[in-house]
Amino acid sequence: MELQHVNVKLLVSKPEEVALEPLIPVFHGWIQEQVFEELLLDVADYRHVHAGPGVVLVGHQANYSVDNTDERMGVRYNRKAALNGSNQDRLCQAMRAAAVACQRLEKEPRLKGTLGFNGREMELFINDRLLAPHDDATREALRAEFEGFFEKLFGGSEYSLSYVSDRRRPFGVSVKSSRVFATADLLANLMANLDS
Amino acid sequence: MKASNSLWQKELAGKIPEALGREVDIFETEIALRKQGKLEERLFAETRLRRGVYGQRYDNGQRHNGKAVQEIAYPSGELTKGPHTMWDAPGMQRIKIPAGGLNATQLETLAELAEEYSDGIAHVTTRQDFQLHYVHIEDTPSVMRRLAAAGITTREACGNSVRNVTACPYAGVCPDEVFDVTPFARSLSKFLLGHPDCQNFGRKFKHAFSGCAQHACGLTSMHDMGLIAVQRSEHGERKTGFETYVGGGLGAVPYQAKLFDPFLPPEELLPVAQAIARVFAKYGEKKNRSRARIKFLIQDLGIEKFRELVWEERKSLPPDPRWTEYLEGAAEFKESPLKPAGERPLLGSSDFQRWAKTNIRRQKQAGYSVATIALPLGDITANQLRALADIARRFTKETIRTTVEQNIVLRWISDSDLAQLHQALQGAGLADPGAETIVDIVTCPGTDTCKLGISSSRGLAAELRKTLAEKNFQLDEAVQSLHIKISGCFNSCGQHHVADLGFYGVSRKMAGYAVPHFQVVLGGEWTHNGGSYGMPVMAIPSKRIPEVVRRLADRYATGRKDGEEFKEFIKRIGKVELKGLLEDLARPAADPADRSIFTDWGDPREYSLEDLGVGECAGEVISAADFDLAGAEREVFEAQLAWEKGQAEQAGKLAYEAMVHAARGLVKLEDPNVSEDSDQIVGEFRIRFYDTQKFFDPFAGGKFAHYLFAAQQRNQQPHTADSARYLIDEAHLFIEAAHSCYQRMGKPVSV
Asked: Do B628 and B736 belong together in one domain?
């Protein structure tokens, strides 16, 4: 099963403190400086929508956002363009992109330290219902793939997976690690994974 | 873009109606041909538009980042999907929803598409369509196939074609309707979809149905063809038909539809619509897009001549069995409830009471209600769409409709279920109160995504919604019931002409810099199907519009007479008092420390229509053009006053003088010694600004200059109330275009 259009969302530590408005100039600045490898195009403001996509930095190959879907605030990476490589490569790429964006926001002076990864919780889903139908077969087919990935991401630490139950939604999992990780730790583990 | 694009055709084989499937296959081939350079870009542009695939802001490959224009290096390089429209630029997919009718499965499909191809949001438009934004052109065949499998088409959602046929969302359940127009709207939509007689229009064509004359829901007065359900008695027998109007439209200069036939029988609905399409295709303007809507044809011909041509065409049509085949089904068409009729709860939480007051309306069927889901700015998330599908299944037989106020209604809710429904909607974040009140603001996409947007209509709407919602229930009842509608530019997609408080985006220069503004348009009539249009008062900086709303609401709350509607109130207090009330907001005192006025709502970039001129001194030098443009605005204001007093001749004369005044301001930039003779000014303007295309709007081209030239030609003719009114509107637009041109001076615009 080919995994494309991987989405990763890193949940933030104090969602009640996150103000979305200051993100708008931050994201405009990212476009101005084209800070990522993806081509960044525009900012979409959905602050008015309940439990919605929040503020979205729209790119050609991917979107970045601070997303409040399910009232779970997090830094989200949504890969839109297909990628070459293995499934593990694509999972790593999306996780790395989300972590780098989150780290950047953690250090952003205009956000005054209000936005940071909570160290334990993330969501991962495949935003293509044809490549990854939301059914038992997909779950079975991807079990080993996910286990292998999270084993490396968390450096062997324990974690729990909980599958999204509504079959109408994209196939995905919520993940909770047993210990706290900084975004730098996640990136280091991913890098070690690449080196190996 | 999606890795699965090549797989959907096979996946959905047998699940898509053959004709729709073939349509999508053809479009996919055209995409491939365009990529290979085998299909000319203009042709491809129209073909994609006719599939609802629209352009979006920044698709010309550049974007002003607040400091300078940045080139956007799209991966497909120079490949285009239309003139000045880069292939890889994200676009908008419009999805037709005839009469706004949807079922739960269709909501779920829209949710999937919003997640997979857009940014997780589906947007309800002012014509009952859905739109998805930020969609890649190469994903659109998959989007279309998945929609087709759910019984939805995007065909002819844009382009020079018959657009979505709209209808009152309360049709069939409204206590005041004459009869249910739903089956007629659907049948007309189906009949005209892809009809050979509708493929050669100079511009788009819009139909709307209403079940009554008095309410707003159908907005038939502002449509190319508007149909209102009527009945009459013939030899003691009740006959139903349609009071039929033609030639209405908003756009830059709004036109009220004219009565075509007071009683069009149902069996004549389809053939007459077909005959009108043929007349429009045959006689309508094709070259000059700004005069190509049917409203101009009817104005030029006169309604009597137009009617004569249509009836001649009708007589010559070869009979088509479809004209009457649908009538049997239409007579039998009936929705039914899922649950037995019930009684309204007498008690409930304060949240429920607030919501019920504004979001529930009684059906004509005792024991049932319609619930309105007020969508902020017309937006709904994928999760909310799925939740709404569940709710629709739980409480109804999936009787769902979109509205022209960018909301969704659920019909056939048993009154005894209302409290539970409210609770379920709360769980999905869909229980905002205030439907159809001052907080339920209608807005077009504006500068967020529309490439024609001048000011941020959505940004302003979000700000007004936030501030008004905080105190909505403390507002005077009459103020609560006002309607606010906002367009990002003069094209009126936000329907600002039919609002109590309407706004449309314009730009002005202040202290040497471009500043986003909104033209304030007051006193439009929402009821009576958009019965009359508001009049422009003045342009105010975007950041001052909340204060405009506050002052007008306060003035109305304290100064209205008993039962006086806003439209009447505005007419009574008049433009002079309104100008006095708002004038200080139009030119706020310069505060070097406050740069907020140079940005728009929700957008921190310094506002710009293009690169600012170099070396302009901050507001210290007032050029002759500034004075002339201000003089032109004064004259058009005086023209409005004359028109209000019934002095059509004087109003028309002043409106023309205002246009000449603005033209003179521009000409003076190149020839300070220009003559005062109006014909010479217009002649000089033509040579210096029209022939050189300096006056051309990047998107509207020379449209506004044509208003001046036409006014010059008609200058010696007497004015009627209608012709003066149109000329005043045209003068406003010409002056706005002169402002824009003045801002662009030094940077030629190619079209």
From this structure: yes
Q: How does residue B509 score in pLDDT terms, banded at 50, 70 and 90?
A: confident
B116/A4 touch (CB, cutoff 8 Å), yes or no: no
| Short-list B729, B726, B676, B682, CA closest to B708 | B682
On average, the pLDDT of chain B sits at 92
Q: How confident is the model at residue B501 (pLDDT cuts 50, 70, 90)?
A: very high
Is the CB of B606 inside 8 Å of chain A's CB atoms? no
pLDDT band, residue B179 (cuts 50/70/90): very high
Q: Are residues A69 and A52 in contact, defined by beta-carbon separation less than 8 angstroms?
A: yes
Question: Mean pLDDT across chain A, nearest whole number?
Answer: 96
CATH number, position B408: 3.30.70.3340
Please report the ipTM that was assigned to this predicted complex. 0.98
B328 and B394 belong to one structural domain: no
In 3D space, the residue among B417, B418, B414 whose CA is nearest the CA of residue B368 turns out to be: B414
Interface test with B, best of A26, A43, A48, A169 (most B CBs within 10 A): A48
Which residues sit opposite B360 in a β-bridge? B371
Whether residue B157 is contained in a domain is answered as no
**Together in a domain, B277 and B357:** no
Calculate the CA B110 to chain-centre distance. 22
A48–B65 CB contact, under 8 Å: no
Q: Tokens representing B368?
A: 């049932």
- DSSP H or E stretch at residue A31: helix A23-33
Rounded Cα distance between B386 and B373, Å, is 14
Q: What is the rounded average pLDDT of the residues B378-386? A: 98
Q: Are residues B732 and B651 in the same domain?
A: yes
- Give the structural domain span for B145: 5-149
Angle B266-283/B303-316 helices, nearest 10 degrees?
110
